[in-house]
Specification:
The protein is mostly beta strands. It has 9 helices and 53 strands.
């Protein structure tokens, strides 16, 4: 079935089905109890919930215990009306309900005539007395008013506890980037098809997932999450998009940046040029009043700027020696600049620090119609289209990196409800494709034409800390998702059950320049490579995995003060199978590791490269105890098991064009000498040696019995409402990761002889379930909901995570020095950050409406201040010693490993505290280094982003805002770019910063 037909079929099915479900939650659940003035329950009361924006209504009748429940309530503002014979009607107005919000309230009716109505403002309670999950809701006010660089939604996802972000990867509660699911309106919306991410592969797009103008709220759910969530070991990041209402509303905006507004980068002598324009708007409103609504967004940006670049490069002295020894080195050396920073006269390498041309463009669209099909059935479709492009500089001017991306995403949703049941159906289509080209890949052998694309691209050189190579890559494929969920209310039990089906897709085409590494200067001048990495690549293919999941959960109100959450789900994760466009090769060629001599089995069936994992039973138990009975204090806790699937990025290099054409071969010094290979080496010349059996390829080997990783999540915390709009929460949050994925490099050369245990192959990366993790944290938040012109939130996290591998579930190396001694690799997880404090504030200054002078009101009224402050310690630092063996680390020989005055000298690591492990003639260390993995920490981050805006009220419903956003407002120097390569002449030095102060001017018209 073609992609277009599959999309149409999915949307059609979603609108036809009226039973429903979803793996991620985009709606609220609203429980209530109706009582009289004495506290006795009132049965048979009629409860009506009305959406203020669309006039859509839902009605329930309280049961014999006075209870009612509204499930799958769409995000929005509501009026709740309660009527019962012999009592005055109650009407609570403007109750805000958010995604995944679970609230329970008691409503006391006064005795009187039902025709009498008592109206009150009815803000939703901030304390969760219903369930045990952690929930962080980033509101529309925060999204619209906080200073966000380039209006990117990524700027708000860290406004909570237990969150670490690295570009587009979001880590929740220490569960790795693969443990955070990303969704839009409840369906899969990862921008990277190979692992969950809010950015596309390569992190080159400024619009992360969706335009900020389309976002109603950002919702993070983590901890003891309900059983309806799948694959979310750490939690779920869900973006809820806006919808049209009965009132026409919209916006127009322009963002502008220029170098004259910015501070000079601390490592440059002049300000690099910058011209950035970001523009667009949104509009929503009724198409047919009360029935059909529409909403749409366009956002574009154009950027032309100079970006800092830095790296080690050969000095003129070394170049002269290299060219005298091997004239052919010129084909690569001609692409590399000379050092422009001070260095010793006899130095072989030096620093180049400069700036190169950066270009960014995108056009991004969202269209979302909503339909009230009947009074009991609602439907919506969200279509997103993005086309980002980037050209970014690198130290080698010719070796620019160019990205071109395509995003096409469709979400269709149908919700139906009856007297005591609600159902929801969703279909999602998500396609993200990235083309990436490194400029050096276009530089070909000047002496001979290639027979196949990519087969004679110039080989790159790596030695003494310098290097620079390239590739061409196409990545991406569509994924499809069907969800179904039903909710029932039976007395004290609120039941949900349902299922999900995923057809996940990944795809690649990839070729790389040969990368030739020399262990030392002597080998470099003698043209004896220590490692020759030849990446022959793969032709275009698509790999798919079929996944199923089913769940049931029960929120059981044991007493009026105690709710117990029970749930269980099972997920089936199918293996990925690959095929080319015609159904033939490339295929997944996987083997099994048979023994400690690295003997590999025959290739498995390409349709069953590793076993599917069909049984992943995950129970969850939580409780919420409100001892005072009035929702002021609540103690919550629980434990849950959550599984995740195998990230697509782990499978990619098992795919080959044929059995005799591996993706890559990584030849050792001994193999290079035996075969008589010297620089320049080309893919086209080496491939016949590998195909003919004269040397081996470097396959990726996945344990055929690999299983899905999982975590035991633990949570125990207290929430206390300090007022109607202020709540404090403090909790212990921890987990234990079991059977996490990790990789090790197998079949390495012997340290002394240089020979491999299995001469039939080069070294290969081996993937299995060997990693395990432990995460413990204390998380505290103080939240002030927007009221009295102020919104303020303060979050602090203390955390520590230990792992034996990288502490992740996707493509990340363990960095182990000994394949068979992973226990010696125990250390901090790669994303471990011990202390994080983050706060955000939005404050609207008084409007001075009582002033008689309209001019005075206009000048001093309508100002707004907002800010985001972040203070955190550093992630771990892993020192490395490049040798013939992967993951090699140096020795620690004593003394203070770091300097306290690095801010003045830029030298952070004390070179005298470390020593290179002596190396054998093979280029391998005589033994593993004694320094542990991730043994050090770098400099942390201190940053304040500040915004000052002026609101002009053009009409009653129209506002023009002129605003300046100041990022790193105090121009604090946050050092970065630490050189961790001990063989480099600049080992231990910082070579960059996280940026100087930048200013963004914004004009926005809202109506």
């Amino acid at each position: 079935m073609s992609g277009l037909r599959l999309i149409v079929a999915g949307v059609t099915v979603s609108f036809l089905l009226v039973g429903a479900a979803v793996s991620q939650v985009t709606t609220a659940t609203f429980y209530g109890i109706v009582t009289d003035p004495t506290g006795a329950v009132i049965p048979d009361a009629t409860v009506t919930l009305t959406n203020v924006g669309t006039a859509a209504t839902q009605s329930q009748t309280a049961d014999a215990t006075g209870e009612f429940a509204f499930t799958f309530v769409r995000v929005g503002t509501y009026t709740v009306r309660i009527q019962a014979d012999g009592f005055k009607a109650f009407e609570g107005q403007r109750m805000e309900l958010g995604a995944a919000q679970n609230i329970r309230q008691t409503f006391n009716l006064e005795i009187g005539d039902v025709t009498e109505t008592i109206e009150i403002s009815s803000a939703a309670p901030l304390v969760n007395t219903v369930s045990a999950e952690q929930r962080e809701n980033i509101t529309t006010t925060q999204i619209a008013e906080l200073p966000l660089s380039r209006r990117n939604i990524a700027g708000v996802v860290t406004l909570g506890t237990g969150v670490v972000r690295n570009s587009g990867d979001v880590y929740l509660n220490g569960s790795g980037r693969g443990g955070t699911q990303v969704s839009v309106d409840g369906t899969d919306a990862t921008s990277n098809p190979e692992r969950p991410s809010i950015n596309m592969f390569g992190n080159f797009n400024y619009v992360s997932t969706v335009s900020i103008d389309s976002v109603q709220e950002v919702q993070l759910v983590k901890g003891i999450i309900p059983a309806e969530y799948t694959r979310a070991m750490g939690g779920n990041l869900n973006l809820i998009t806006k919808s049209g209402t009965n009132e026409v509303h919209g916006s127009l905006f322009e963002n502008f940046r220029a170098e004259e507004l910015n501070a000079r980068n601390q490592f440059l002598s002049e300000k690099p040029g910058v011209t950035f324009n970001q523009f667009g708007g949104s509009i929503g409103g009724p198409i047919i009043k009360d029935r059909v609504f529409g909403f749409g967004v366009y956002e574009g940006y154009r950027e032309r700027a100079f970006r800092p670049v830095a790296g080690d490069v050969p000095t003129q002295n070394l170049r002269t020696e290299m060219l005298a020894a091997v004239p052919e080195y010129s084909i690569w050396l001609d692409t590399v600049p000379l050092p422009n920073q001070p260095h010793a006269a006899d130095a072989d390498t030096g620093d180049f620090i400069g700036a190169g041309s950066l270009q960014n463009n995108e056009n991004h669209f969202i269209i979302k119609p909503d339909v009230r099909v009947t009074d009991n059935v609602n439907a919506s479709v969200n279509w997103t289209r993005g086309r980002p492009e980037r050209r970014q500089p690198r130290v080698q001017e010719v070796n620019f990196r160019r990205f071109s991306g395509e995003t096409d995403r469709v979400t269709a949703n149908v919700t139906a409800f009856g007297g005591n049941w609600t159902s929801e159906t969703r279909y999602g289509y998500n396609r993200n494709v990235v083309d990436r080209l490194d400029g050096i890949f276009e530089v070909m052998d000047p002496n001979k034409e290639e027979q196949k694309e990519g087969s004679r691209r110039i080989p790159c050189i790596s030695a003494l800390g310098f290097g620079g190579c390239g590739e061409i890559l196409t990545l991406g494929a569509p994924s499809h998702q069907f969800d179904q969920k039903i909710a029932l209310t039976r007395g004290r039990h609120s039941l949900k059950f349902g299922g999900v089906y995923f057809r996940r897709g990944i795809g690649r085409a990839n070729i790389e320049n040969p990368s030739i590494r020399y262990q030392n200067k002597e080998d470099l001048l003698a043209n004896i490579p220590n490692i020759a990495q030849m990446t022959f690549g793969t032709d275009r293919y698509t790999a798919t995995s079929n996944q199923w999941g089913f769940f049931v959960q029960d929120d059981w109100r044991v007493t009026q003060t105690l709710v117990v959450n029970l749930g269980v789900r099972n997920d089936s994760f199918g293996h990925y199978t690959a095929a080319g466009p015609d159904g033939g090769p490339p295929h997944t060629f996987n083997r099994a590791l048979l023994d400690t001599s690295f003997t590999l089995s025959d290739v498995r069936d390409v349709n069953n490269p590793y076993e599917s994992d069909n049984r992943n039973i995950a129970p969850r138990l939580g409780f919420s105890w409100n001892p005072d009975g009035n929702g002021t204090n609540v103690i919550r806790g629980g434990v849950g098991v959550i599984f995740t699937d195998l990230a697509g990025e782990t499978v990619t290099q098992t795919v080959q064009n044929s059995l005799n054409e591996p993706f890559r071969a990584r030849l050792s010094r001994d193999e290079v000498i035996r075969l008589g290979l010297k620089y320049p080496l080309y893919n086209e010349d080496v491939l016949p040696l590998v195909s003919g059996g004269q040397t081996g390829g470097s396959p990726r080997v996945i344990n055929p019995d690999i299983e899905s990783g999982y975590v035991y999540n633990f949570y125990l915390g207290l929430q206390r409402a300090l007022s109607d709009n202020i709540v404090i929460e403090s909790a212990f949050v921890g987990n234990r990761g079991v059977k996490w994925l990790t990789s090790r490099i197998g079949n390495e050369v012997d340290r002394v002889t240089g020979l491999r245990p299995n001469p039939g192959f080069s070294n290969f990366d081996y993937w299995d379930n060997s990693d395990s993790t432990r995460y413990a944290s204390w998380q505290t938040s103080l939240r002030h909901r927007y009221s009295n012109n102020l919104s303020a939130n303060f979050h602090y996290t203390w955390a520590k995570q230990i792992a034996y591998g990288g502490g992740d579930t996707g493509w990340v190396s363990s960095g182990t020095q000994d394949f068979f001694n992973l226990r010696a690799n125990r250390g901090l997880a790669n994303q471990d950050v011990q202390h994080v404090f983050v706060s955000d504030i939005v404050y609207d200054l008084p409007k001075f409406r009582n002033l008689n002078s309209s001019i005075a009101r206009g000048v001093i009224g309508g100002w707004q201040l907002s800010a985001i402050y972040t203070g955190q310690t550093s992630q771990p630092i892993n020192l490395r010693q490049p040798t013939a063996l992967s993951g090699s680390r140096p020795d620690y020989i004593g003394g203070n490993p770091t300097f306290d005055n690095a801010r003045d000298t830029l030298q952070y690591i004390n070179r005298a505290a470390f020593a290179e492990v002596p190396e054998t003639e093979t280029g391998a260390g005589v033994r593993p280094g004694n320094l542990g993995r991730n043994a050090l920490r770098g400099h942390g981050l201190i940053n304040l982003d500040f915004s000052l805006g002026k609101n002009f009220f053009v009409t009653e419903g129209t506002r023009l805002q002129i605003r300046g956003d100041f990022f790193n407002v105090f121009n604090h120097t946050n050092l970065s770019g630490l050189n961790t390569n001990i063989e480099s002449g600049t080992f231990g030095r910082f070579r960059g910063t996280r940026g100087a102060r930048e200013v963004q001017i914004n004009a926005r018209l809202t109506f």
